[in-house]
Structures are given as structure tokens and as C-alpha cells.
Design brief:
Helix content is about 55%, strand content about 15%. By secondary structure, the protein is α+β, with helices and mostly antiparallel strands. A hairpin with a 3-residue loop joins strand 12 and strand 13. It is rod-shaped.
């Protein structure tokens, strides 16, 4: 995976994570603001209704007035918003934020507004509930406390339990506080005020079970957060998979078009997509297939044309043999047929070699071998075949120093042999094979003093079955495959073959250049 794609994916994931975090914070704060307001009004509601139903709560519970500013005021003397007035008119408990803490209000049966202030709602309401319970239970004798406790617990929304066993007693620090204060709030965990311990005037200890405090991590909030995170991640995953699916569908569409015969169809994909490498590989494969199909068509057409001439000559020779009475003529016809068969055999060998090189290349077994030795061997062989030509080699001392290289000797020999043989066909009297090798490259130039190759045909000569003359006779030599084979051999060695004009001899100069694959050279 490229760095560009990695950074792009990383940026997207970071953006999604930031988006999820922002949405979670907004949702968490928004929901909890509503939930906290709802809790502020529902948690103290039993206490506020109990106080509102009392004829004179500010006098009956005078200590609440001293501690929590309990007042009963006419509705007309209070500055309230229309919404608050309407809610109070419906009998709801209203909580408003005050300069110090919160103000709770409820309308009494007489139409007045009862209000009380708490700096910390849970602590203040819980302590007020415990004080109300203690005041009422201290007002009755022990025989009637059970009924009064049950009635108080039902109206105030708390549970009241008498601690009459040692196992029910709270820890010693709580008992020490209750002896000093009379009312102590404590919980099973530090900071969790869910119980109130009350000591009555006669020393009786009561446990008042209080409702749970407000928790911002309630299951509705957590459920919504999980749902939000899952939805955002699902959406991001869907968008990512959709983009990949679109690119894969494009590759699929091009594959179908190629299967239908549209060999020029290609995948258009950017460099920053996840399937860009697949698209590039697919396009490379498609180009290779298109070239192979084109080569196959050209080969079928050219082979059918090349085979027609020798086959026609063989058929003609056979017919001549049937009517031939002269042994000398019969022998001549048999020699002609044998030559035609030899030509067919050579043509088939050329076709098979070219097809093997064109359709993926041979299984190269590179090994260390002397390039200059191959050059000398080819020159020696061609001198025997063409004794009427002067075939020379030009190899300097520096080249001999770097002569060893990792090559496929058989195919390099074939490439140089094809060039020298081709030069010998068109040379007037001389062929020169020049070999130059350095640390990085190997180069072999084959020059002749023939007519040369027109510049506009320099690329055409390497095309399969291409010959600059239109002759199809045996004397023209070759089948138009030799130079194509040379180019493919150099391609599989990582090099190239090209043609130019010989400055020294005036004819054509065919050059082979490929990288010298040798990790180290021995200094002589």
C-alpha cells in the first residue's frame, strides 16, 4: 500500500473518530441536561407535595425555613415566566437554577407558591426528607411509630427501617456522627448517598432508604451512544465499501467487455484508490492479452502465407515425379522436395521460437558466461557458412576484462547469430561484429556494407513476418521472424535491440544492448 493511500485512509479514520467523539459529546450533554432537569423535578416531588399539603409548612417545619429558605408566597408577588406559571397551575413541581443552587416551587391548594432552595439538590432534599421523618416519628409514641412510618414512607417515597439488630448497624464512624448530629447521610460506597441514618429522641435508630442520585451514565444514554457509534461506523463502512465496490464493478465491467471482444477496454482508476494497483495490473494484463491476440492473428495470417509457397512447390514436385522418366530429373525433383521440407522445418522452428518468446518468454537459466566467447563462436560459424564474405570481430582489451556476465548463452548466441546471418544476406563483401562491455552494460553491434535500412523502416524491421522487400522466394532469405526473435530475447534480458546506419561500412548497423548482470568483477 502506498503512503498516499495510507495517509488518506488514516485521515478518514481520524475524521470519523473525531465526528463520533463530537456527536457523542453533544448527545451526551444534550440528553443529560434534559434528564437532569427531569430528575431535579421528580426526585423532590414527594417532599414538595407533602409540604404543600401542610396548612402552614413554614411554621410546622420551621427548621426547613432556617436551613433551606422555605417560604409560602402569593403567586402575584413572584416574578415568574408564563411557562412556569402554566406548569405550576397544572400542579407540577418546577426547578429553576438560582444564584446559589436550585429553587424548587409548587402550588399549594390555596393558590400560593411554596418554594425552597437547595445548594446541592440531592444532599439537601435527602436531608430534608430525613428531618421530616424524624420530626413526625418523634411526635408519636413508640406504639404508633410503625403506622406513621409506613404512611410517611408511602407519601415521601422512602423506606423506613428500624435498626434493632447489631448486624444492621452501620460502621463505627457513622455511629459516631449520628451521636453528634442526629441525621447522617451515608452510602455503601464513598460519595454514594443512598441512605440516611436517623436517631430519634429516645435513641431509636432508623434507616431511611433514599432514591438513587442522578447518574449521567444511565442505560438510556449509554444505549443511545452505542446506537450512535454503531450507526456512524456502519455508515462509514458502507461508504468505504461502496467506493471499493464501485471500483471493483468497473474492473468487472471492463473484464466483461474484453470477454466480448473489446480488447481495447481499460480500467480508469486513480492512483489514490484502494484498487488502483489492481486496476494497473488488470490494464497490464489486458494490454498483454491484446498484444498476444494481435500477434496470434498476425502469425496465423503470415504462417498461412509462408506455408503456401513451399507446400505448393512440394505438390508440384510430387506431380513432376509421377510423370518423370529421367533418373537425373527425378533426382533433381527429390532434392527440391527435400529442400522445401527443410525450409518448412526451419520455418516451424522459427515460429515456435518466436511464439515461446512472445507468449511469456522461455524459462531462462542465467549463468556466468563469456559474451566475447559467444561473439567469436558466431563469427567463426558464419565464416564457414559464408566463405565469400569477410566477417571480422572487434573486441578490445577493456571488454575482455568484463567479458563474464550472467546471461542465457543459448539465446544470446541465437540473437547474435540472427543479426550476423541477416547482415551476411545483404552485405556486399564485409560484416563487422563489434563487442563493447563495461561494468554496467553489454553491447554488440553488427554492421555490414550493404544497402542499409531506410530510416523510416527502422522500427518496422523488428515486426514479425515483416520484410522490406515483398519477395517470397528462397533467395530472399528468412521468414521475417529473425529480428523479432532478437528483440524478444533482448527484452527478456532486460535490454533492447535497435537499428541505425553504419558510419564505418555505410550499410546497416544492428545493436544489442542489455545490462551486465554481474555482482562483482575480479581485477586482473
Amino acid at each position: 500500500m502506498s503512503l498516499k493511500i495510507f495517509l488518506k485512509l488514516y485521515a478518514r479514520l481520524a475524521g470519523i473518530a473525531a465526528l463520533v467523539g463530537i456527536l457523542c459529546v453533544v448527545l451526551f450533554n444534550g440528553l443529560n441536561s434534559v434528564r437532569h432537569q427531569f430528575w431535579l423535578e421528580r426526585f423532590p416531588e414527594p417532599l414538595m407535595r407533602w409540604l404543600a399539603e401542610s396548612p402552614a409548612p413554614e411554621r410546622q417545619y420551621h427548621w426547613l425555613s432556617a436551613w433551606y429558605d422555605l417560604k409560602r408566597l402569593p403567586a402575584g408577588e413572584m416574578t415568574l415566566s408564563p411557562v412556569v406559571r402554566e406548569r405550576l397551575g397544572y400542579g407540577q413541581v418546577v426547578a429553576e437554577e438560582a444564584p446559589t443552587g436550585f429553587r424548587l416551587m409548587v402550588e399549594t391548594p390555596s393558590g400560593n407558591i411554596l418554594q425552597i432552595r437547595f445548594e446541592e439538590p440531592y444532599f439537601g432534599v435527602s436531608r430534608a426528607l430525613a428531618l421530616v421523618v424524624r420530626w413526625h416519628l418523634d411526635s408519636v409514641d413508640s406504639a404508633g411509630r410503625e403506622d406513621v412510618a409506613a404512611r410517611l414512607g408511602g407519601h415521601l417515597g422512602v423506606s423506613i427501617t428500624r435498626l434493632d439488630q447489631a448486624s444492621m448497624l452501620p460502621p463505627d464512624p457513622v455511629l459516631q456522627q449520628i451521636a453528634e448530629q442526629g441525621v447522617v447521610l451515608y452510602g455503601p460506597e464513598q460519595g454514594d448517598r443512598r441512605n440516611a441514618l436517623v436517631r430519634l429522641a429516645d435513641g431509636t435508630l432508623l434507616l431511611v432508604g433514599l432514591p438513587a442520585p442522578f447518574s449521567p451514565f444511565g442505560w438510556p444514554v449509554l444505549s443511545l451512544l452505542v446506537l450512535l457509534i454503531g450507526s456512524v461506523l456502519a455508515l462509514a463502512l458502507w461508504l468505504a465499501l461502496k467506493a471499493v465496490d464501485n471500483n471493483l464493478r468497473q474492473v468487472e465491467s471492463v473484464a466483461i467487455r474484453i470477454a466480448r471482444g473489446e480488447m481495447g477496454a481499460r480500467v480508469e482508476a486513480g492512483t489514490s484508490t484502494l484498487v488502483s494497483r489492481l486496476a494497473a495490473a488488470f490494464n497490464g494484463m489486458a494490454e498483454h492479452i491484446q498484444r498476444l491476440v494481435q500477434v496470434q492473428r498476425e502469425m496465423i495470417h503470415a504462417v498461412s502465407h509462408e506455408l503456401r509457397t513451399p507446400v505448393a512447390r512440394i505438390r508440384f514436385g510430387v506431380q513432376m515425379i509421377e510423370d518423370c522418366q529421367d533418373q537425373k530429373m527425378l533426382h533433381k525433383q527429390l532434392e527440391g522436395i527435400d529442400g522445401d521440407i527443410q525450409e518448412l522445418d526451419e520455418l516451424i522452428d522459427e515460429i515456435l521460437t518466436y511464439a515461446r518468446l512472445e507468449q511469456g518468454g522461455p524459462v531462462f537459466s542465467l549463468r556466468e558466461h563469456s559474451v566475447t566467447e559467444i561473439v567469436r563462436q558466431v563469427v567463426s560459424e558464419q565464416r564457414v557458412i559464408r566463405p565469400n564474405l569477410t566477417i571480422d570481430s572487434d573486441i578490445d582489451d577493456d571488454t575482455e576484462h568484463f567479458a563474464l556476465s550472467d546471461i542465457e548463452p543459448r539465446y544470446i548466441h541465437r540473437a547474435i547469430q540472427n543479426l550476423v546471418g541477416n547482415a551476411g544476406r545483404y552485405a556486399s563483401g564485409r560484416v563487422l561484429v563489434r563487442c563493447r562491455i563495461d561494468e554496467d552494460n553489454c553491447r554488440v553491434d553488427v554492421e555490414d556494407d550493404g544497402p542499409g535500412v531506410p530510416e523510416e523502416d527502422w522500427e518496422k524491421v523488428f515486426t514479425a513476418f515483416a520484410r522490406l522487400d515483398d519477395s517470397r522466394t528462397r533467395t530472399s532469405g528468412g521468414y521475417g521472424l529473425g529480428l523479432s526473435i532478437v528483440r524478444r530475447i533482448l527484452y527478456w534480458h532486460g535490454g533492447q535491440a535497435f537499428v541505425s546506419r553504419s558510419e564505418e561500412l555505410g550499410g546497416a548497423r544492428f545493436s544489442l544492448v542489455w545490462p551486465r548482470r554481474k555482482p562483482a568483477d575480479t581485477v586482473l
